[in-house]
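Model the whole thing, not chain by chain.
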Amino acid sequence: NAGVTQTPKFQVLKTGQSMTLQCAQDMNHNSMYWYRQDPGMGLRLIYYSASEGTTDKGEVPNGYNVSRLNKREFSLRLESAAPSQTSVYFCASSEAGQGYGYGYTFGSGTRLTVV
Amino acid sequence: AQSVSQHNHHVILSEAASLELGCNYSYGGTVNLFWYVQYPGQHLQLLLKYFSGDPLVKGIKGFEAEFIKSKFSFNLRKPSVQWSDTAEYFCAAGSSNTGKLIFGQGTTLQVKP
């Protein structure tokens, strides 16, 4: 089925460990996004990539890095995990420009716990 | 600064009751507005969106929203809720220039059968 695929679905890390969250979309969308969802705070944008080869910071980029590997894939890396990064992470994609009006397509999320 | 605010954090209704969830935004320039729904254990899905034209927009599953520019509001409504509407609802604002969406804090709706 067409859509956004995130891996892994669940992960437990120890403080200081690193990991990469993977995201891939097969809809030929130009733009991709990483959000984190925390109770009472909604979704906050971490990083986004308006098109292949470009990345920009969102609202809460500290502690994260991203790579837009190609048009399909957009990964999020935690270099040294902290308990404050315990959250549910969503990847999303959309058409660029006016096309984004069709809305984002979201992945199913990664539930990350840092102990 | 750009922001989206949802007034109600947790709403409890009985089946067949009417629903209105508030959303206010602060956004410079031309704004596009969205409502997303997240059912338990699932990812976000688009309910409806407003870009221009008729300020009353209709979405899926009987939901509608009204854009009131003077009040910077985009409230979500449904005349009669069902138990299956139990979910978390997010209002979002963005512009086609950047493609970025700013989300509100979310409203958890619990519908009692």
